[in-house]
Amino acid sequence: MISIRGVSKKYGRNLVVDDVTFAAEAGAITYLLGPNGAGKSTVMRMIAGLSRPSAGEITVNGRPLGEFSTTATEIGFGLGAFARNPKHSAARQLRWQARLGGIPIRRIDDVLTQVGLDRVAARPTGKFSYGMLQRLNIAGALLSDPRTIVLDEPANGLDVEGTLWLRELLLDLAAAGKCVLIASHDLTEVAITGSQVVILGKGKVLSDTTNAELLAMGSGPRPLESAYVEITRSSLEYTAGTRS
Ligand SMILES: Nc1ncnc2c1ncn2[C@@H]1O[C@H](COP(=O)(O)OP(=O)(O)OP(=O)(O)O)[C@@H](O)[C@H]1O
User: Fold this and answer.
1) pLDDT tens per residue, range 65-96
2) How far is the CA of 34 from the centre of ligand 1 (A)?
């Protein structure tokens, strides 16, 4: 379980996360939604220990983040689909990650097979498509077989088969009792796999409901979208317009 209590983050004088409180429970898929710039990635980065909260506390399975010497075996992070070194193979990128996190090297073949990259394990990641890098990103998150999995927009770039695979994977992880937290813009995936939905806007929690409650708030042929649009309407930072 991830618990975030009263967490704020300031960059200079800019308060980008403002007194955020929510929990992601074990055995559930919690989605973190919100418009561009709402603070989702900043919250994810603080959970990963890549950035320190200016205020508040984050605990994972009851322990404050600061107590972990490494979170690698406790939480699996997939915070970005990128080639760490484009000359290195997928297997080498995961070996580096395993070594850094004290994770057994034998897990690498398992996760490469799990994400469907076993046949291209030796290929330089610089030659990977975006979807292949996304699969590698997810492989990294699964590497330690952690109780808690945190993913930033994991469905981006996946092909149709990959999207269906990811859905099954996430549902299986939750069914196995894992805590899954996902930042996303993809309401279709939220509708299919989400249990709890937290919506941020301008750094604040605008809504924290179950998927079913959010659906019930909406109307028309696309109730989830309509509920989301209503909740975030006054918190949009970037809206497309026309020049007069
Ligand atoms: N390192 C940084 N220094 C200064 N400001 C930052 C930094 N990182 C993020 N921000 C600002 O924090 C705010 C929240 O950004 P964040 O990336 O968390 O939003 P997001 O909800 O993930 O957006 P998106 O949906 O576009 O990915 C933005 O205004 C952004 O400009």
Assistant:
1) 888 766 667 899 998 888 788 999 999 999 99
2) 12
Nearest to 26 by CA among 159, 206, 147, 155: 147
Cα 43 to middle of ligand 1, angstroms:
9
Domains recognised in the chain with CATH numbers: 1-68+178-237 (3.40.50.300)
**pLDDT tens digits, one per residue of 137-179:** 999 999 999 999 999 999 998 999 999 999 999 999 999 999 9
Give residue-wise pLDDT tens across range 34-64.
999 999 999 999 998 889 999 999 999 999 9
Q: Ligand 1, atom 25: nearest CA belongs to which residue?
A: 36
CB 146 within 8 A of CB 104: no
- Residue written as token pair 């992880």: 173
**Tell me, what's the ipTM?**
0.97
* Whether the Cβ atoms of residue 207 and residue 214 lie closer than 8 Å to each other: yes
Helix (H) or strand (E) holding 110: helix 107-114
Ligand 1 atom having least distance to the Cα of 38: 21
